[in-house]
């Protein structure tokens, strides 16, 4: 029985959310041999090569309504308490397509005849897709695949479109209770979900990367190069970058003046710093280039939810990592075993200086082993199977 995965963006791996979508899609297709991915055409002209290459995938684009139809869908979503930012992406065409393909699967496998056969699941990718699936027939199994527990942090960001903390929590509570099952990325988000909606059925399906296809790199201690890979259009990453540039690096340069910082990822309009020791690379086609000739990776996040995919990616590349405790909160990493954890500018700079001087490569090797065990696509296949 094939599942139907529904997303509100054309599937292209250009953000952490899309990388999670890819990992989920790969795992779903592997467990059943086939997957229908229904997506609203938005953000890109067509799916990228990585999604098209998933064995057994069927890609079904949906053109959302415009004009009056879109306005009515938005108004109905807002009336149901869906925050503005999510309501703008709600499309009746998306839910209709999801049910149509799921019903086709039922008919092919006997599940629609009431004879006890299985029914195809509809898996909503993120809160906007979840809100769009509210009108799905109750008899249809709905799974909500979350990137974060939104109400745990989003109201603290510069995001007026999600409304107040109370309104966001009320929406998320309804979404958790509407879904037959919710997949959260971490134990912390699982606990928060159950505090918000004790009757919800929640399991942890962590963020993953394609560990098997990532060739680990050899750290380059002599380079004294630090890399920060992120989508800098995302506010928590921008705030982490400011923390790094304004507070950490000046302290680090007092101890290791030759240390250099490489910034990789979309969202930077120009050089992030006039200091020549800060290299602003921007978006790269081959992410492996970001990690070449690097001594240590950093994840200096001070806010945000879930578990940072770039943290998981750096683990998979086998690089030593220095991160804040907040960044590591959703992961099974241990300080001194898989990475170095430090909070505050003084401690973060000291941890970086120690790693640059001592070059503890075992951190990277143990981090890679953890990625293989916990954060690979193969590791979540049993978690997403019906």
Strand order of the largest sheet: 3-2-1-4-5-6-7
Question: Structural class, please?
Answer: alpha/beta
CATH topology label of the largest domain: Rossmann fold
Low-pLDDT ranges: 112-116
Instruction: Report the sheet with the most strands, covering strand number, pairing sense and barrel closure.
Output: 7 strands, parallel
CATH class of the largest domain: Alpha Beta
- The strand count comes to 13
What would you call the quaternary organization? Answer: single chain
GO molecular function: glycosyltransferase activity
Keywords: Glycosyltransferase, Transferase
Protein name: Glycosyltransferase
EC number: 2.4.-.-
Description:
It is an enzyme of class 2 (transferase). This is Glycosyltransferase. Its EC number is 2.4.-.-. Keywords: Glycosyltransferase, Transferase. This protein has helices at 16-32, 49-52, 67-79, 84-87, 92-109, 127-132, 165-178, 187-196, 235-255, 309-316, 325-328, 345-358, 362-374, 377-384, and strands at 3-7, 35-40, 57-62, 121-125, 141-145, 181-184, 202-204, 225-229, 260-264, 278-282, 296-299, 321-323, 340-341. With 386 residues, it is an alpha/beta fold. The chain has two domains: 3-205, Glycogen Phosphorylase B (Rossmann fold, 3-Layer(aba) Sandwich), CATH 3.40.50.2000; 211-374, Glycogen Phosphorylase B (Rossmann fold), CATH 3.40.50.2000. Helix 11 (325-328) links the parallel strand 12 and strand 13.
